[in-house]
Every structure is written in C-alpha cells, then in structure tokens.
C-alpha cells in the first residue's frame, strides 16, 4: 500500500478574500439535520461531546485546532456524505466546542488520542475507522501508535508524521504565547497563509481573532503546549498494520510531514490533491470521495 511523491515547496495563490470565505466555512453554523448530540465522561473526568448520524460501520471524525465537529465536518458536507453509508461519530475534542476545556497542557497531547479509545469503549465498539484533519490528523497518528487494535483504518488529512524534527516549535511557542495573552491565532495564520504575498499585520490580527472568537484561548494555548505529546516513534510506524490513507494538498506547509511517512510507515498510502492548500483541502470533493473509496476498498463492498 506504499506510494511515493516528489516534494515541492508550497506555491500559495489564494487571496485574502478566499481565506476569509474558507474561515467562515470552518467556523460558521451547520444545520445538524439528522445528527444527534451526545456526551460521555473520559477516563480522566473531562466531558466529551460528539454528534452521531447514519448507520453502518463506525467512522470517528477528529477536527482541527479551533474547530468543532459541526464547523469542520458538517460545514464541509462530509458528515452528510459519509452518513449515507456509515455511522458517523464526529467529536468536539477537548478544549473545543461543547467539550470540557481544561487549562493545563498535561490534559492534552496523548490524552486527546486516549479520548478516542474512551469513546469507542463508551459506545461499545471494538473497532472504528478514524479520520482526522490537521490537529485531528496528528491525533489519529497517535491513536494508530497507541491502540492499533481498535482501528479498522486511519485517514490522516492535512497532517503527517508528528515528530520533533518536523514540528515548528518556534511557531507553536509563539502561538501559545499569543493565545495566553488573548491576542488570537496570528502565528498560525502566518504559518498556514495561502496567499502569494505575506499577510499584512492587519490581516493577521483580524483572521487570528476570528479563528478564536468562539473558543477559550487559555484552553487552546494548553492544547498547543501539549502538542509534543502526540509524537510517534519511527519504530511504531515501521511495524504498523493499520491501513492508513494520508491526504494532503500539494501546497500545504505540512506536506513534508506527510512525505516523511512514505518511506517509513508500513500500510501507508499518500494521496496528494494538486493545487490544494491547508485551508481548502477539506472542502474539496476529492477529499471525501477519496476517503469513501478507501473505506469501500477495505471492506470490498463496492
């Protein structure tokens, strides 16, 4: 299941108006249709909320930082599309949405991956497919390492190998400090910026504040401080037996993390969406079509 790709430096062509439209799509409201909202208490006492829609093999969805189950997966139409054939369980991860928001970094990192195991235990599910995007993708990688027996498959979107060598610690430190000071997500805006020209300070400020408008910034800072707890050792990748699909935009600054898995991780397949960046990959029809085809291939139920 291995494939290779040639790395190219990101070439960002989107303009500010596109960025703002995508931001609204990620943070806007979503009509929950047939989804039901439920919650459970994780093994460390934090309350975790999630949405359930559809019937069939279970698929757990893990959103990116500052997002929610509804804003990341619902607004992109992915919950509805997958719910046509699967039971979709979309989580508000701790520190986000309706879930608990502890302010200590020790409550995040690996603990966010263990929430997935706790969720499966709560639902009495032995296994599930898990799909994560951005931060959710790195969490999915940690679940692959910690609890491979609980996974039918893993889909890692907008992310790749969580490791010290590939992590931009300076950016994460700046982001945590900005959030702790109540100044929003500016450093993340600069890191993920999809424009050909660097953003102006005014653009960074406006978008950075919009990203965290409905969030607890101290909780988000703790999430960022705990990111190192998601690191995965290379040896666990070499012995991996979980079918893993990695989807990344060709212009995503996190593409090197995805490329790094190709020659290390067993049972790994890389799918690159040409021309896509970190902000619009999730909204591409190619993303959900590729995920659905991967699941159908695994079950041989086309």
Would you write up a description of this structure?
This protein is of the alpha/beta class. It has twelve helices and eight strands. An eight-stranded mixed beta sheet has the order 1-2-4-3-5-6-7-8, sandwiched between helices. It is globular, with a radius of gyration of 18 Å. The model is unreliable at 1-33 (pLDDT under 50).
Helix/strand layout:
Layout: H1 16-27, E1 36-41, E2 47-53, E3 58-62, H2 69-74, H3 78-82, E4 87-92, H4 110-122, E5 128-133, H5 135-146, E6 151-157, H6 169-180, H7 186-192, H8 201-211, H9 217-225, H10 234-238, E7 244-249, H11 255-259, E8 268-273, H12 285-299
Parallel strand pairs: 3-4, 3-5, 5-6, 6-7, 7-8
Antiparallel strand pairs: 1-2, 2-4
Helix pairs in contact: 1-8, 4-5, 6-7, 6-9, 7-8
Helix content: 25-40%
- End-to-end Cα distance: 19 Å
In the predicted model, the low-confidence regions spanning at least 5 consecutive residues are 1-33
Total number of helices = 12
| Helix vs. strand class | alpha/beta
Give average pLDDT, whole number: 89
Give the biggest beta sheet.
8 strands, mixed
Overall outline: globular
Proportion of beta-strand residues: 15-25%
Q: Strand order, biggest sheet?
A: 1-2-4-3-5-6-7-8
Using the CA coordinates, give the radius of gyration. 18 Å
